[in-house]
Write a structure and sequence with these properties.
5-stranded mixed beta sheet; alpha/beta; about 15% strand; about 25% helix
C-alpha cells in the first residue's frame, strides 16, 4: 500500500497550530495565535492574545473603544510576545514565527531581540498603519524576513470523532 499523498505541508501544519492556539483567546473582537518553530521543524512554543497571568479576564476590560485604561489595549499580551515568553528562556535564535496577524511594532522588537529570523503571517490588515510601518522598518533593518503565507486552502477541518481514527 502506498503512503498518503494528501497530507499537509509543514507551513500548513505550523500555521494550523497557531490558528488553533488562537481559539484559546477570550478576546471578543480579535483572536490571534502564534507558533515558534526551530530549523528542525520542532515547535518551541505557542501563544495567543490574552491578559497576563493573575489578571482576571472577568474584571479587566475587553472594550475596544473608550478611555485607554478602560480598554483592553494596555493589558492584553499579544500572541507573539506570549509565545516568546512561553518558550521559558529557550534559545529562539534562527527560529520561524507563524502568526495569524502581522506583528505590531512592540512585538517586532521582542521578535528581533529573541533571535527569530523569519515571520510568516496570514493577514496584514493594519498595513500602512504607523505600528505596521515601524515593524516592517525594524524587520528590514535587522534582517528578519517576513512574508504572507498563501496556503492555497481556506481551512483545515479537525474531527474529534474517535471512531474515524
Amino acid at each position: 500500500m502506498p503512503k498518503r499523498t494528501d497530507y499537509i505541508s509543514w507551513d500548513a501544519y505550523f500555521m494550523g497550530i497557531a490558528m488553533l492556539s488562537a481559539y484559546r483567546s477570550k478576546d471578543p473582537r480579535t483572536q490571534v495565535g502564534a507558533c515558534i518553530v526551530n530549523n528542525e521543524n520542532r515547535i518551541m512554543s505557542v501563544g495567543y492574545n490574552g491578559f497576563p497571568r493573575g489578571c482576571d479576564d472577568d474584571t479587566f476590560p475587553w472594550e475596544h473603544d473608550g478611555a485607554a485604561a478602560d480598554t483592553k489595549y494596555p493589558y492584553v499580551v499579544h500572541a507573539e510576545l506570549n509565545a516568546i515568553l512561553n518558550a521559558g528562556g529557550r534559545n529562539l535564535s534562527g527560529c520561524k514565527l507563524y502568526v495569524a496577524l502581522f506583528p505590531c511594532a512592540e512585538c517586532a522588537k521582542a521578535i528581533i531581540q529573541s533571535g527569530i529570523r523569519e515571520v510568516l503571517y496570514l493577514s496584514d490588515k493594519y498595513n500602512g498603519e504607523p505600528s505596521n510601518i515601524a515593524a516592517k522598518r525594524m524587520f528590514d533593518a535587522s534582517g528578519v524576513l517576513y512574508s504572507r503565507l498563501d496556503l492555497g486552502a481556506a481551512q483545515i477541518t479537525i474531527d474529534f470523532d474517535a471512531d474515524k481514527i
